[in-house]
Predict the structure.
Amino acid sequence: MAGTVTLAARGAFSARSTATHATTESASVRWILTGIALLFLGVFIFMPLVVVFAEALRKGLAAYWDGLAQPDARSAIELTLIAAGIAVPLNVVFGIAAAWAIGKFEFWGKSLLITLIDLPFSVSPVVSGLIYVLLFGLQGVLGPWLAEHDLQIIFAVPGIVLATIFVTFPFVARELIPLIQAQGQEEEEAALSLGASGWQTFWRVSLPNIKWGLIYGVILCNARAMGEFGAVSVVSGHIRGRTNTMPLHVEILYNEYQFAAAFAVASLLALLALATLVVKRMVEWRAQHQSASSLGELA
Amino acid sequence: MSIQIKNVSKKFGQFAALDDVSLEIPSGELVALLGPSGSGKTTLLRVIAGLEFPESGSILFEDEDITGRTARDRRVGFVFQHYALFRHMTVFENIAFGLRVRPRSSRPSKSEIRDKVHQLLKLIQLQTLANRYPSQLSGGQRQRVALARALAVEPKVLLLDEPFGSLDAKVRLELRRWLRQLHDEVHITSVFVTHDQDEALEVADRIAVMNNGRIEQVGAPDEVYHRPTSPFVYNFLGNVNLFHGRSDNDKFSIHENATGEVLYARPHLLEIRRQANSGTHFRATIKHINSAGPLVKIEAIAEWGAPVHVEMSQDKFRDLALVRNESVFVIPKEMTAFQSKAVS
């Protein structure tokens, strides 16, 4: 038995190594392909990034700080933090619950739920915003009732938060579903048979097992929540100092030819993106490192 | 603690995983649920554990009906086929888990937990590996940690799902002897699932042979092996030769065209001779000889063209000095007859 396994493994290995050899291209082809990729990245990603920081600092550090210190800019930063601060935790709870239901149970309408979770990805953000205007706006379905009770959602902070939640809710769930499906439920069953309550099982067994996937999902969710433009733009009403988020504020400044200030705020968003990438890479590395060590021991 | 399973049925969709199963497991016994995959043995084990709930029937622990209780309340130790160790916890933390999650009123103190875990680590002979993670252990070591983790909560019943299924042959043999030894020391009522008849025959006090969601036969290893009550059990517990023929009390006759009965004979119950005798016998031609191992395995072709498997001791083989393509007589020493329609 052991003999056949070893033989089969060796066979597979040699087959793979010859396959790699057969698909290797000549040096010139490799250089050309790499060159095209690098050129593309340089023109479309790297240069714009450099331009953002160059423009932001063109009039010196003082002008840069000035752009960020304006009351409107500060309020835009605050609003962005509020929106992300509400949307991300809510989507973490929703994402875990949805991924849990999909990964662990069989129920009627499961594939419908999976499709619905993907909806914000497939629909244009502008449409997402419009949905809320049609629902909560003055002429909308719930508009008259809301006006009667003196509740304003559209052109106010609640609308911005709602739109942000909508466009960012697939991130955590999407990240966790395959992870939870792959892990199965044996560890949870083991915990239950050892006398743990459902709550203890979740905190001590389930959550630690999905930790890295969850962090990864949160990072992506947060980046999108802070950077969202389309949906928020529709519901915001662009009231300066009150309903402008950072991306909206950048647009307004730019349209008013305040380039230094516009790029200063934009540079903050760009920094956020860079920080996100660094953290994402670190999380990936940690997660990979852990699974690699367990795989290595298995073999 | 004794376990009684009364008329338990369980369906998965249209598939009847358990079909009116009843089984009694006396206190302190080590019982094997043996059967091919899909026979319902794992489902039965999970029903006993409370990880699956039956549609009808009841489960009693020591005369107490616990059918509706959850796994958490049943106090059973469950060892999973793929260990299901908590991958983010060390060996120590894994074993301590069941004690640490107890309600504060019944939770042992930290030092008590530490003592208990070390005692169990000693039992499974892994004292030096307390701070390792499951990914840093071999399969056999993981299985032992899983066992220690289940024993830590002092369960009244120990349930093991294919406990040695994913280990290599050598470790498997070692571990199952160790399990038998452990059971002789601890004497906890244990049930284990296996598809390996050697494992069941070697380790268990009693074996319940399962097929298609039903229990075919329950008995001591000796009994199910030597006196199988159905063709399925006969087939499943070892190699077998089938002959068409008739039985009349203890006399058997083999006729290739006979219908109605099928005669079963294990390979070691067939004898090869150079001369015919007055009893039942047939001619055969030796086609293949495998003399590696404690027994010599011989494949021959019977006069009607079907293959026949015979096993004999090395001594006997040397005395006979058989060679390939030699024509010999085969004499069944013992056979069991079953109605041919019951053959599965």
